[in-house]
Amino acid sequence: MSAGLAAQKALRARLVGTTAVTNLVPAANILDRNSRPNPDPSIIIGEGQELEGDDIARTNRNIIFDMHVWKKELSLVGVKTIAGAMRTAIHSARLQLEAGFHCGDCHVIGMRYLRDPDGETSHAVVTVSAMVGEVSS
Fold first, then answer.
1. Helix (H) or strand (E) holding 2
2. Cα–Cα distance, 75 to 63 (Å, whole number)
3. What pLDDT score does 137 carry?
């Protein structure tokens, strides 16, 4: 398994396991998928990038995820509220990864709020950065 996939699984588990998030978005609507329409509301684990770390052994990775929040609403209030709950959940404690990986840090590095061209849907992009190291199990 890649460090990116390990981090993705841990991020989803954190969101699904946080009541403040699931009170706003049902756990079944926190998904890794590529189709529309998305459930309303939803958090879609989107694009990612896995970069080599700076260590000489090349066992560390810097992983960046875009997580998309979708909600049918005319304003941006709902997606901003969901994004804020996600940020709090992600920052609440170090991610627990599967055996073979260790998360040194994970934090939200940005949140963008957009109006979908359909005129009915709001969209937020929450960008998350994780520093993951490979360790002997």
1. none
2. 31
3. 62
pLDDT in tens, 43-101: 999 899 999 888 777 889 999 999 999 999 999 999 999 999 999 999 999 999 999 99
Q: Which residues pair with 130 in a beta bridge?
A: 63, 106
Q: Within a 13 Å sphere around the CA of 49, how many CA atoms are in the beta-carbon half?
A: 9
Q: Which residues contact 108 (CB under 8 A, 6 or more apart)?
A: 86, 87, 90, 91, 126, 127, 128, 129
Q: Which domains does the chain have, with CATH numbers?
A: 3-63+74-134 (3.30.2000.30)
The DSSP string of 50-117 is: EEE-S-TT--EEEEEEEEEEEEE-SSSHHHHHHHHHHHHHHHTS---PPTTEEEEEEEEEEEEEEE-T
Give the C-alpha separation, 74 to 93, whole Å.
33
Instruction: Count CB atoms within 10 A of the CB of residue 117.
Output: 8
> Coil, strand, or helix at residue 126?
strand
Both tokens assigned to 45: 């684990």
Judged by DSSP in three states, 23 sits in coil
